[in-house]
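Hey,
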Amino acid sequence: MARYEIGLAWPVSAGTFPWTTLTINLLGSVLLGVVLTVVAADSASAHRFRAFAAVGFCGGFTTFSTWMVETVLLGRGGDVGLGALYTLVSLIAGLAAVVVGVMTARAVVHRSLPVFDPEAED
């Protein structure tokens, strides 16, 4: 519902850069970084909350399908360069937004997660 309401409040015209979807996806990416950092515990309740918050809310708020449809429509409308720019900006800014969320959560809760080490023993 949140994504839908934002889309109604900030409509985007055909053939223009899809700022609304990009903004929604970036907000969801920041929130995902925060949630996955704060809920780092390995308990059963943490797993359930992580699933609800990360997959449920963030997954429902962000929208891969709309991003792809908008990219295809830009290409079909002759705006291939704009579609490619939209894809590139979405990927780079989305990853950066997750990092911002992780760093923000770590600064607020004063906790760091263990670093992934593929050579560490289980």
